[in-house]
Amino acid sequence: MFVVLWFLSSAARAQKKAPERSPAGAQQGSTTVSQPRVSLSPRFSPGQAFRYTMEFETTTATSRSGMAKDPQGPSKLVIDWDATILLQVLPAEPSAPGSIRLRTKYEKSTAHVTSDTFDPAAAATEEQYQNLEGKVVEFTLDANGKVISVLGLEEIVDGEKTVQAARDWIAQLSAGSGAPAGGVIVGQKWSSEQPAASLPVAGMVWRTESEYLRDEICHPPNPDAAPTPPSAESPENPEPAEICAVILTRLNLVRPKPVHDVTPEEYRKSGVQTAGKWDGSAESLSYISLRTGLAVSVTQTGTEEMDVTLTNGKNISMRYAGTILSRSQVALVADDLQQK
Predict the structure, then answer these.
(1) pLDDT score at 6
(2) Which of 34, 79, 169, 282 has the fewest other C-beta atoms within 10 Å?
(3) If DSSP codes are grouped into helix, strand and coil, which group holds residue 223?
(4) Under 8 Å CB-to-CB from 136, ≥6 apart: which residues?
(5) Mean pLDDT across 321-335
(6) Which segment, 143-157, 159-173, 207-221, 270-284, is predicted with the most confidence on average?
(7) Would the pTM count as exceeding 0.85?
(8) Would you give the DSSP letter of residue 226?
(9) How far apart are the first and last CA of the chain?
(10) Segments making up each domain of the chain, as ranges
(11) CB–CB of 183/35 below 8 Å?
């Protein structure tokens, strides 16, 4: 599964942050009126319940050659996963004060897999995603919003891609939690870095650049759709529109400094040497409720390109090359947006 979703929580929460940059045009002096700072972290309380819909699409166009060459295997594979998830906030464990426990139930989980050639594994892949339906998984977040433990997921799915996809959606709920401590103001930018430890090439980091663009009425699931105007039959004092902070985040996979050997330690211990390159980039647009800190909607697209060769102790090599395109959307169900 494309790792760009993973970065949204992991990279955004990285401890190493670049110096904050002030909004363009900001002036200092006694006459300057300070903008109020807002927190973009979700403010969960035990007993709350929310429902989210998710759409993930991953298109993989890759080839293998060498010891694992499969001339009949698909060169293009598309996975579409749709899900509806009920999220419940539980009391923190007495042994972990300040932590947050989230229970998720997959009320709906369907997947469709297509390829350019017959793929006997397609049905099994679809079944892995569909097996999530009705299952319950618990996540524990630390005081900074970082996922520190997951219970129940590995017991219901056994595919690495499926496990990662199921973990990824929880990251969207804390899309603004990487913002600087003390809150942010419109126009402010911040950045962070997180090691890309899961890649077969060492020394890479995900570099995140985020910007607080503006405040506006929280968009419906389709971010291109305009909010519905009030009708003539609306009450005189309708419920005030929910206002969201709009956060633009860009991600790039970079190598901050040269490395002599790109083989990760985990591969080296297994007697495998790696060589090659792995590039990636992504962009997301998040709508974060100013009132609750919840992610109302997050849309994201990304690309990865790789050309990596793995060689074992017998000097037998396998080359893995291609591209992975991803698109995702996570949206809070409208009725849950007005929860107090």
Answers:
(1) 31
(2) 34
(3) coil
(4) 103, 104, 105, 106, 152
(5) 90
(6) 270-284
(7) no
(8) P
(9) 35
(10) 4-14+44-223+241-332
(11) no
